[in-house]
Specification:
Strand 2, helix 6 and strand 3 form a beta-alpha-beta unit. The protein has 300 residues and is an alpha/beta fold. The longest helix is centred in the N-terminal third of the chain and has 22 residues. Helix 3 packs antiparallel against helix 4 and helix 4 packs across helix 7. Helices cover 35% and strands 23% of the residues.
Amino acid sequence: MWSGNHIRNPLARSLYMQAVRQAEIEEELRDTRYEEWYSCDVSLLSEALQPKFLPLHFDTETEEFLQGSREKSDWVFTQIFHSVVSTLLSMFVSVTSINGWLGRGSMFVFSQQHFHKLMRVSHSWQAQRLLDLGAGDGNVTRIMEGHFQQVFVTEQSPPMQERLQERGYRLLDIDTWPTPQSGITYDLISCLNLLDRCDKPRTVLENIRGSLSPDGHLILAVVLPFRPVVESGSKLVDPTEQLLVEGKGWERQASSFVEQVLTPSGFEVETFSRLPYLCEGDLYHPYYVLDDAVFVLRAT
């Protein structure tokens, strides 16, 4: 059978393979059942968590993100360039920084509608300060920013820091942002898919708890099953502080995360949901998806 292996020109071979892969992707997308991304067997949750689960659904903003990701995946020459640059730079710097330089890899955790339902607020709700920890390129911060007078962010990657400052956010140092002596507290702190990618997650939770205003909340997202790893330059290493999360399946992992991580850290779940953690794709796939548990918490 004739295949792309018979094409000698590297560019022509890449274009051919992209066309073949695109046909496969379109078939996969037709078979995707988006509602499965949000499904939860409530009976498998702990008794304490069962009444806290909030079912959410696929919506227009999520579809718009996926459509944008599909369109970018079709930019063949751009994707080939990104692939070459990523391969070269990955020997020296983190994937996050590479994405920052290339302007790709934006994430999507929740839509504005999802945010309002999780927080139990209206579109007109206003508060003073938001702090988004590990904000990346600010695409998710953008969903929340309209509700706050001041928006603060932290981010380890220098290229991503530049993108955040371009958006007008106030950038704080990742090591010195918790300053209890300053008296500055936050009405909402967001910690989205950070705990499994930071070196000291328990310390982060402790600092968050000490930085919330009296009526403040933490909105926290974590990928389940929980598999922590930390970017250290071009390498991936284990975190210094280990979090024990047990159980088979999303529901049991969510229950374990609450019982063994959040409750001992001084947080109480007000509501939580299952959402897809989406990331812009590449030449080979229009997007990538992981299973998030998104919690709205208050300090006890």
